[in-house]
Amino acid sequence: MSDLSDVLVPARFCGPPSSGNGGWSAGAIAVRAAEACREDHTLPRPAVAVSLQAPPPLDVPMSVTATDDDGVVATYDGKPVLSARCSHDTLADVEPVDPDEARAAMASFVGLRSHPFPTCFACGTGRAEGDGLRIFPGRVADATDTQGEQPWPRVAATWTPAPSVSGDHTYDGHPRATVPVTWAALDCIGGWAGDLEDRLMVLARMTARLDSLPVIGEEHVVVGMGRGRDGRKTWTSSTLYDADGRVVGSAEHLWIAVDPAAFA
Predict the structure, then answer these.
(1) Is the pLDDT of residue 144 over 80?
(2) Which three-class secondary structure string do you get for 86-134?
(3) Looking at the predicted structure, is the pLDDT value of residue 1 above 50?
(4) 147 has pLDDT over 60
(5) Which of 31-40, 121-130, 178-187, 239-248 is predicted least confidently?
(6) CA count, 13 A, side-chain hemisphere, 149
(7) Sheet with 220-230, side-by-side order of all strands
(8) I need a surface site. Which of 2, 87, 190, 233 has the fewest CB within 10 A?
């Protein structure tokens, strides 16, 4: 095994007040995983699967080590927090939603009346414009039943990346959001598609494929879809579309229901 550069989750990128947003944290370690498996770092990026084994701490470095199976693990205080490896899984894109429909759906976002984590970088209602992403997904038409199964519920929202989420990424001459920010945009919408209002859940696993990165200042549409539940587990998917309707990235999630008292 070998050491890679540390990962640190700044407090700005929190989910609950005391821990990192799952998607942003997963995206940060996903970059290290791509390095460890020696994949090409240019776009499109390889799919990466990330497991969240503990709440990512804020403002402290986590040591990152490459494992013998081409994965990476981030540890804090000697305990694993995030593990990741490149994945060859095929991620199906969630059906697109018209921007007008997605924009209108945001008014019905259930988090506007009751939000478990208003501080969340991705979907928190307590975050200011330009600080958090403020992705507020509302219910839209169910996904089309193409395989004789029950249609899956979908939610959608529009999102225009602010200059404050850009990094040193440019593509086709356009400034772009960072990889961790793009993972964050694909994260919480899955939780709301899986009915986060009904029961409190946290992200346990996320696999994402980035075909591009979001253009700063352009309106995007992000769509989430519920894919089923079993006991404490809930499975969801999400896809981010650019202003021309092209796929920016897609993700699949596993959520675990938790005791609300643990996050009081």
Answers:
(1) no
(2) ECCCCCCCCCCCCHHHHHHHHHHCHHHCCCCCCCCCCCCCCCCECCECC
(3) no
(4) no
(5) 31-40
(6) 11
(7) 2-8, 61-66, 71-76, 79-86, 48-52, 201-210, 247-257, 233-241, 220-230, 154-159, 138-140
(8) 2
Architecture category of domain 2-263 in CATH: Beta Barrel (2.40)
The identity of residue 15, as a single letter, is: G
Report domain extents, the chain.
2-263
Residue with tokens 């921007």: 99
Structural tokens at position 78: 């000697």
Which neighbouring-strand residues pair with 201?
257
Decide if 249 contacts 94 (C-beta within 8 A): no
CA proximity to 229, closest of 254, 202, 203: 254
pTM of the model: 0.93
pLDDT of residue 205: 98
Which residue in this structure is represented by tokens 């776009």? 43
Distances in Å between the alpha carbon of 152 and those of 26, 193, 228, 261?
25, 9, 8, 30
Task: Give the three-class secondary structure for 60.
Answer: coil
Write the pLDDT tens digit of every residue in 94-113.
999 999 999 999 999 999 99
pLDDT at 15 > cutoff 70: yes
